[in-house]
Write the structure tokens for this entry.
Amino acid sequence: MISKLYSVSVIGLDGQLVEVETDISSTLPSFVVVGLPDKAVDEAKERVKSAIKNSAFPFPRTKVTINLAPADIRKAGSCFDLPMALGILKSQNIIEHDLSDSIFLGELSLDGNLRKINGVLPAVLFARDQGFSRVFVPEDNAEEAGLVEGIDIYPVSSLPALVFHLNNNTVIRKYERKYSLSDLGSVDFEVDFADIKGQSTAKRAMELAAAGGHNVLLSGPPGVGKTLLAKALPSILPPMSDEEILEVTKIYSIAGLLSKENPLVSVRPFRSPHHSSSHISLVGGGTYPRPGEISLSHRGVLFLDELPEFPRISLESLRQPLEDGKVTVSRAQGSITFPARFTLVASQNPCPCGYYTHPARQCICTPSQISRYKRKISGPLLDRIDIQTEVQPVELHKLTADSFEESSDKIRERVIRAREIQMRRFQNENYKTNSEMPSKDIKKHCQIEDKALDVLTQAVKQLNLSARVFYRVLKVARSIADLSDALKVNLDHISEALQYRQREDVY
């Protein structure tokens, strides 16, 4: 007898419907899984067989063939354990009810209990969009799956419990959502801008970065507060929308970074990989491609401390994601695209010893060492960093003074107002912030006064700036104008935006 159940394979961030077909024939005993399974799926044969036997159900003493269709798409992971076991039981008429309206996901232990799996959120979203009415998931994945509205979620503890439920002997209660995405409460950030003394120019740069989603490069001697400024940036970013929360949570679900206690990423991510991180861990990839740090930073902040110390291949691989907001990982089996719309915050010293621009300490580096250090970061990468600013040491009397420093809450209010202006401006576009605005739309959305345009044109000629920098200066100026609630970009906005471009002879 042949039975058919449904599951979902997650490829990248997208779901693919998988038909789990089971056939039991009267030939010599064997257990075969076909349909391009990976090692984890192939090993499921032993888990499924033991789980069925240890749950007091009979396992066929004849040939069992399971086909995972479509056969031309590789099936990876352990989420097919549950539908495979149910298919065997249904083929023996142990389960008689129609299961065509259901999706089954879960890894089986040898005693028949269900274990947590990765990628449940995108799988449930796909099931809802495909018109399925219910999804059965492991108990530990219930809260994550429950984030999706419009589909019934059933948390399953074990294979016997599910079989008894399907046969109407016992009832598994439908999962009830405990909270909504819009009711997330307040967030306590690690660093507040009120804790940072001085550094008014750098703080202004970070405010602009938050307002328009611009990338930032902080340059300066060791100990001046570059890392502290980067860690404070999340505290002034606007809260994520429901759409962004689900988008980011999907990425973390696939990466296996969600827990039963924290099934939701409700705060903008802040990722800070070490400079010894591999190229694949930063960009993503592997035999079966997984999201890297740039995708885990999606809609949040990617902080690269000591930027010149990162391998050049890793830095150059950031060029395309910084431009397009996504990264495509190509393998022999095909290509997978992960979102990577993040705000890059990078920090660097002015030279190997770190004191080239220090007002008091003497640099011990030779000119060739300084030149070699600067060349570690290519011009094309620097072109894509909108705001580049120097961070100088804070004078001692400012560190000890009881001076008032503006809090992150006050700065965040201005940032949110600027983002709301951009939301109204781009309501008919497929992007959200000034930094995402394509060059072809700048003329439409960046109205600039004639005198300001003349100054910008002259600056581009004198500083030999590229066309990309020309447009990026305009985007930063547009963010400055939004913070001041100005309709047009004027001379003051352009002048400030030009200050954030480092000259080649300085850096």
About this structure: Residues 189 and 235 are 6 Å apart (CA to CA). The radius of gyration is 28 Å. The domain at 2-166 is CATH 3.30.230.10 (Ribosomal Protein S5; domain 2). The chain has 21 helices and 18 strands.
